[in-house]
Amino acid sequence: MQLTAPVVLGARTAPSRVVFGPHETNLARGRALSDKHVAYYAERSAGGCGVIVTETASVHESDWPYERAPLAGECAHGWSAIVAAGPSSLVLASLGHTGGQGSSAYSQRSLWAPSAVADAVSRELPQVMGPAEIGCVITGFAEAAVLAMAAGCAGVEIEAGDRSLLRQFLSGITNARDDGYGSDKALLLRQVLTAVRAAIGDGLLALRLSCDELAPWAGVTPEHAVALVPSLDVDLLTVVRAGPYAGSAYRPDAHIEEGFNLALCAQVKEATGAQVVLQGSVVTGAFAEQALATGGCDLVEMTRAQIADPALVRKLRNGEAPRPCVLCNQACRVRDARNPIVSCIGEPRSGYELTEPLVQQGISGRQVLVIGGGPAGLECARVLALSGADVTLREASPRLGGAVNDASLGTGRSRLRHLTDWLAAECLRLGVTIQVDSPVTPAQITSSPGAVVLATGSRPRADGVDARAALRGELPAGSVLVLDTVGGPVGVSVAEKLAAEGRDVRIVTQDPIVGTLLSLTGDLADCNTRLQRAGVQRELKSLLRSTSGGTALLEDVWTGTQRSVPAEVVVDCGHRLPSEDLYVTGMLRAGDCVAPRTILEAVLEGRRRAADV
Amino acid sequence: MSKYTHLLTPLRLGPLTVSNRVVFSAHLTNYAQGGMPTEQHAAYYAARAAGGAGLIITEEHSTHLTDWPYEKLIHGFDPKVIPGYRRITDAVHAHGVPILAQLNHNGGQASSMFSRLPVWAPSPIPDPLFREVPKALEHHEIRSVVDGYAQVAEHCLAGGFDGVELQCSHSSIVRGFLSPATNTRTDVYGGVLENRARLLLEIVAAVRAVLGPSKALGVRLCGDELIEGGTRIDEAVAVAQMCEATGQVDYINTSIGVATATLYMIEASMQVPPGYAMFIPSAIREAVSIPVVGVGRFKDPVQADRALQAGQADLIGVVRGQIADPDFVRKARSGSAQDIRTCLSCNQECVGRMGLNRWLGCIENPRTGREAVALPLPGRRSQRVLVVGGGPAGLQAAVTAAERGHSVTLLEKLDRLGGQVPVAASVPSRAEFLDITRNLVAAAHRVGVEVKLSHHVNAVDLLADAPDAVIVATGAVPHKPWWAGDLERVVDVRDVLEGHCSPQGRVLVVDELGFHQATSVAELLADRGCSVEVATPGMVVGQDLGITLDLETWNVKADAKGITQTTDVVPMGAVDGITVTLQHHPTGTDVVRTVDWVVCAVQQRADDALFHELADAPFRVERIGDCLAPRRAHAAVIEGHRAAVSL
């Protein structure tokens, strides 16, 4: 494979063409890279990653975009520890300044930006930068680069992508200056690159550049980018799309296809002499290899794929199947005020390398019966089999996968199946005895010779049509009211699927917008847009009070005002209840049968119960 | 001598005696780091003790590792907290004030995001905010919960606390068991009230066994959850009686609402009348003989004294009032209550920052949240400082500079002080916002700031005057959006509130700020008989009202006043008539509105001409507040303070 073969970058050689891109982790201690960062990156390096670009560090104290955002001045020790712990990979320090897209909440100081244009998300007006502030930023980049090189990094990557002051200067949306930085919008970027080049000697100079802000009326367009890149003195160029109105476009979830940036990347590659990195939802070795074969890129960034499986490159090299990233963004996208730790629904040890134990291989020889073939049961069986146990997995239904089978039928959710398919394949490979169509009775549990783990999933809270039945297509004819009291991905995907089938669909939520929990995945604004485009009527801040004769009575949550809407079928996408039929106090159990939650909790508990056996 | 005879009378609280009736009740601060209490905690509580609070109750301490609903929760179950506890109690005791620790397990009002463990609750009913199905507790887990409270009580004893309070009121596993809305169990912990209260009484017994007779034990109860099927006052009274009957509880604290459902009534903003929750302590006090604490937007000592006099409660919780002014009690006692920096109940930097996982601050008090960081000494003493502009930024700069020994003159071009604050506060429902500049103006006079009104300043005069420093706080001016052309009846919110125009008929309010500007002017114009629609490019009108807990009350009022709301639209142009074209950006479709007036709540432009004219001044020039970048009042206050401190 080209992908897993070494690649020469300047004076250095990376062990593979796979890049682990910069991303927020919330692993920092204060504003310094922590020992958790070191362990996190070390596992990806050990797994064969070619180039690790560390979490973007602010180059100047005027930038404090999120509470645990690294500050370059405090990162020297962390960078050198990361280099020491991952010597096989090339480590690049990502350096940035988020300008008007930052936050004043932590610094309690005004934001810096090229012009008095409020950020579209925060609506906060920044301070217009004068010569003194611009000088601070240029110096900040150069000084941070010196620190990174002294720490042993192979080079630095300059951030001009998703949240970036340098991109704000490049863009007509955010740069309305009447000085030289307005007439030449790339002036600051070139000044920064020049200063950094002078600071890093023979180090690698990489640039992450938004080549499409998706706002052609004034923003950076692919044509701008193609015209710009020949004048930029960089060794490595990562092509991204991002801008003030681009929302989730930089790292979208599975509603956007894998490798969506390939055409843009190829277009820019033709214009530059730098080696080019393809970024954007590349999660499979097959796609990455094919992208390299097209000549449209020289390296491939597979960040989320390596959050899902730190050993991605090694497994691809050995012909093994890595644990798939399903592009759900549920646990790895952590730009959230609560400061969640970066992790993965399929690999919950990610981000917790220092506290969650490694799965141990062994020869225990114990007999274990796992009841239930959803993600909790499959993960439990897989880990037990790895430990050498003699595992039997019994699934009552004809298929493995549990609730994921239905969830993956929702619009934009089909990739979820990849994870349970992988788990099932691993169980088979590791010799788990799998029995489907095999319900278990209490008596069989009592007489089971070995340990038993319950992973029997959930049941609906009420009678009627639930989300899973709707997803399976088991729905009477007529107009549909999707009752979504959760605000997660399920209700939205049900509404979208039914609308695509030509139904008259309404979605009811108690919230002022649909899908409030999707702020974490980045799909919040997008899902509301998709629903409106699909003609789904959003019944906001409303409670369902009753249904009769093809209509539903809705009530405004705040005013109590009631109204009737057509609803021949109501689909309940609300919370479910645990299936506890087989449970007896003291039994080991995992996942939804403890409390119906998400795949992350199912996998985490499946793994933990395996260790408890 | 003080006139607050009820407020300043000592009271026995079980084994404790408090010197007055003002309680700094428990509230989140987000000052913890890594689950541990910090220096900032100690300094924060010590400042309120030094200011004369009768009793301090710390923020909650988690009693169990299954309870971690937000990042900066104190892990009371970890014995490593004890040195931090000791630091807090020593700092508070140095001022002779007793301090209790609040113990809590948030139960189902949590997520597993931080704990990575199932959330525990009486029944598998998901919380309305966190929306995670909890695990229904088994009996051995209930015992573990009770043991957790006892263990943390031991830590509190070792850490020097004078007792503990059990939070059973608005976010608690005990509340979860007490409430019929969240407890559907069929065992001895569910059903009749005696069963639902069983967990509480087991915890009381376990904690008292640890505390012994010399420490205080309080129970905080919710008098009305304000949710369907939830606890109401009659059950709250009955539970208070059960607590008293144990003989182990020294006082009852009260609250209203559920933190994850009806928070806007727990930490009520200025939209809710003061003293709104006093029916709860009143009812409980009639039924029990142990002291009862009442809470709910107590802003000044008169109001608190009257509530005590009326027999509504034995003690009064004053939280935001002491966040804004730590010397609330001291000033009342010394006869200078008029100097109290009264809380606005704006909720911007206290409540608003809590929900966003940020450290607790105050819009008016730039030292709140920074008590542990000492201010530097002034550079050169007694500098002559000119402050240009008498809005909140200029006023705060002038006050702080004068307090630090400088000779300060404040120059204001209008015939009044306050900048945009009196304008914003001219809307009836926002009247209390005026307190921010009323307090600052009073402070400016008190500390000897020379104020010159109707005083126009130019750079030439300032350069000729050659002071030691000029602080420019010249504010912002409205800026007509590009799509409005030169239409006269497309105006700014300020034009309306300052009385430069008086829109009639059909009015479209364009909300690009997502805060009080649009909603305030919409209310005002609706009250004047206009037919009002508020349109925003955002997904919600007045989105940030959610942060200050004003969204619910705004929506209720808007509905009553016939105000309509349109989201996801961007103005694309306006022609005389007035016909406004709005693009619905999710679908790209245009909608057209024909109205009589358009009122814009849009970004202003910094009035920074004077600052730039002083670019080469031989003296120090600082720029603060809206003339740096037009933002909200807290930024003005912080920058005013910081500029003055930097002199």
Could you walk me through the main structural features you see in this protein, from its secondary elements to its overall organization?
The complex is a heterodimer of chains A (613) and B (647). Chain A is α/β, with parallel strands linked by helices and 613 residues long. Chain A is 29% helix and 18% strand. In chain A, the strands form seven sheets. Chain A has an eight-stranded parallel β-barrel with strand order 3-4-6-9-10-11-12-13, surrounded by seven helices. In chain A, strands 16-15-14-17-28 form a five-stranded parallel beta sheet, with helices on one face. In chain A, strands 19-26-20-21-22 form a five-stranded parallel beta sheet. In chain A, helix 18 links the parallel strand 21 and strand 22 (537-539). The longest helix of chain A is centred in the first third of the chain and has 20 residues, at 131-150. With 647 residues, chain B is α/β, with parallel strands linked by helices. Chain B folds into three domains: 11-354, Aldolase class I (TIM Barrel), CATH 3.20.20.70; 384-477 and 606-645, 3-Layer(aba) Sandwich (Rossmann fold); 482-603, FAD/NAD(P)-binding domain (3-Layer(bba) Sandwich). Chain B contains 21 helices and 27 strands. In chain B, the strands form seven sheets. Chain B has an eight-stranded parallel barrel with strand order 3-4-5-8-9-10-11-12, surrounded by seven helices. A five-stranded parallel beta sheet of chain B has the order 15-14-13-16-27, covered by helices on one side. In chain B, helix 3 runs parallel beside helix 6. The two termini of chain B are 38 Å apart. At the A-B interface, strand 8, helix 18 and strand 27 of A face helix 19, strand 26 and helix 21 of B.
